[in-house]
Amino acid sequence: MDTLFLLRKEECITIFSNIQTISKKEEQDAADYFESEFEKERLEFLSDYLICDKETAVWAAKVFYHAAQLYLVRENTAKDLDQLIPEFRGEKNVSALLSADLSLRFLPQIITALQTLDPNDPLIGRLENILSQFHYSGVEYDLDLGKINWEEELEDPSFRKLYLERIVEKRAYRLAEIPYINQLLIAEFGLHKDELWRELKIINEEENK
Q1: Of 78-82, 87-91, 124-128, 175-179, the least confident
Q2: How much is the pLDDT for 5?
Q3: DSSP H helical ranges for 87-156
Q4: Cα separations (Å) of 84 from 59, 63, 187?
Q5: In whole angstroms, what is the distance from residue 54 CA to residue 174 CA?
Q6: Burial of 20 (0-12, 13-18, 19+ CB in 10 A)
Q7: How far apart are the two ends of the chain, measured CA to CA in Å?
Q8: Which H or E run includes 180?
Q9: What is the pLDDT of residues 13-54, one digit of tens each?
Q10: Residue 78: which pLDDT band, with cuts at 50, 70 and 90?
């Protein structure tokens, strides 16, 4: 719990000298903690139907926690990667995306640090695959999102609003210049476009066909 609190409040994490085992009680405590954090952030969701997916929130927290530990502790860990960084096997809906984001929003920093140490580290690809599934948490990271149907991905109005806000917050030009997203942003900005993001180009979709 102390590790999660530091991560959420101070954006820092304690690295141990060996991989720590997470107990069932710690998982339950984490689930309760993330539920309370989700409720605080839900004030921005403008939606009453979104609830914390506690199982997904705990999965994401364990992925981030183990990724951070593996940044320094790698001896005899290769055989345990499937257990330490498991694939997501739940239902990927808006509640799951936002619940996972409570931890995965910090994952790009870990991946960048791993790339500095060893760009060929197989852990990087594993983490990038997870971030590609939960790309709302990796808006600022250079992911291959070319196969995404953005109209379907951003169909939910609450999620669409949050996604656009994060693109603006992170100044994610790569995403902002995707024609569909660009149109959404320009419509959202209205007459205040130059005040909110002067440098953003207005993309003509016809010119990109």
Answers
A1: 78-82
A2: 58
A3: 94-104, 107-117, 122-133, 150-153
A4: 10, 7, 43
A5: 31
A6: middle
A7: 50
A8: helix 179-189
A9: 666 656 777 889 989 999 999 999 999 888 877 778 899 999
A10: confident
The DSSP letter of residue 90 is S
pLDDT tens column, 171-188: 999 999 999 999 999 998
Contacts 24+ apart (CB under 8 A), 26-31: 26/1, 27/58, 27/62, 29/1, 30/1, 30/4, 30/57, 30/58, 30/61, 31/55, 31/57, 31/58
Token couple for 158? 């609450």
Radius of gyration of the chain (CA): 18
Residues 105/137, Cβ–Cβ less than 8 Å: yes
Q: Please, which pLDDT band fits residue 100 given cuts at 50, 70 and 90?
A: very high
- Give me the sign of the Cα torsion angle 90, 95, 99, 100: positive
Query: What's the residue count for the chain?
Result: 209
The set of residues, in sequence order, having a beta carbon less than 8 Å from that of 189 and lying 6+ positions away, is 196, 197
